[in-house]
Amino acid sequence: MENGAPAWKFRANEGLSAASAITVRGILFELMANLNADDGRTMVPLGHGDPSAFPCFRTAPAAEDAVVDAVRSGKFNCYGPTVGILPARRAIADYLSCDLPYKLSPDDVNLTLGCTQAIEAILTVLACPGANILLPRPGFPYYDARAKHSHLEMRYFDLLPDKGWEVDLKGVEDLADESTVAMVIINPGNPCGSVYSYQHLKKVAETARKLGIMVIADEVYGHLAFGDTPFVPMGVFGSIAPVLTLGSISKRWIVPGWRLGWLVTNDPNGFLKDTGVLKSLKGFLDISSDPPTFIQAAVPHILEKTNDDFFSKIICILREAADICYEKIQEIPCITCPKKPQGGMFVMVKLNLSLLEGIKDDQEFCLKLAKEESVIVLPGIAVGMKNWLRITFAIDISSLEDGLERIKAFYGRHAKK
Fold this sequence. Notes:
The chain is α/β, with parallel strands linked by helices. The strands form three sheets. Strands 2-9-8-7-6-3-4-5 form an eight-stranded mixed beta sheet, with helices on both faces. A four-stranded antiparallel beta sheet has the order 10-11-14-13. The model has no long low-confidence stretch (mean pLDDT about 95). About 40% of the residues lie in helices and about 15% in strands. It has 14 helices and 14 strands. It is globular. This is Aminotransferase class I/classII large domain-containing protein. It comes from Eucalyptus globulus. Keywords: Pyridoxal phosphate.
């Protein structure tokens, strides 16, 4: 004790700060702090994954009505079961079963606080001493943050830009060893805008079976496919290798703030039960928070009553925006898009620093772009690809065009003479 002050024994967990530093939110916050307060133009958000602020992306009336009805009923102000209320789990099982060669049961479905809690749940369950997990590069950095927090070793396999961002399956086999427990597949792709074919996904499942690992299939952008390749859920191949499907209503219904996700077992052979994974998963959910009960109660109505016109409208907007984004990128010499996006809400572009003066990497590019043009773009380092950029096209068309024109002007000022 010095000068009468007690010798405090508590300390912060520094690991939390280290983990949060590699999240999209953390990096976007840093970019937002670099905006020029004197710039009178509206900021253009080309770095986010939340288009709900734009009127053209308003959710379906059936979804809004479902939530209102659930609240006004007075029946869903209570705590729910840790795995979710039965009507919601049954509705999600039926919804997902439409695309599968077998039928899911409500017991295969666990409801979560958005897809992020589903990620947290399964990575915590798999984080046994010495275990490692295979993550895509580029990928969604929340997996890195949660794995780091859980002391689960991360190993990265490449997605191949010249092959439509397909998985480097040989690379997967080379990375795996006796301590590898799972590989993560994000389809439709965040951040690449890719949509994997049936044939490629089958090869992924066969590789997982050969290695004795599960597939964690992140399908939060499920059905948001607008190119030539239709969306195929990884669960189709659950009889080849066990699949845990992560999803939510956040993206397809444009309601990320409603925080309703799921973690679903696609494992007709029962391997996940036999190895104790399902028991451990329930144990995690027993000590975690649940999605709001009234949102759970709205799920059956949301899934059953949303008409096809709503989905078609969203797909048309995304397709048009992706086309415009791809075409406008061709007009900006310092960035190159290896493949036109086929789904999701993002595209990856390669940054050619040799054409720029006074910009050393993707982070500096994004910081200066924010300051000079009030445009927010995510640096590729955030998703595992240094000197690339992730651009979202899930905003209204006029804002998208404005933002890309500002990037073009930014290039003009910083181009090497």
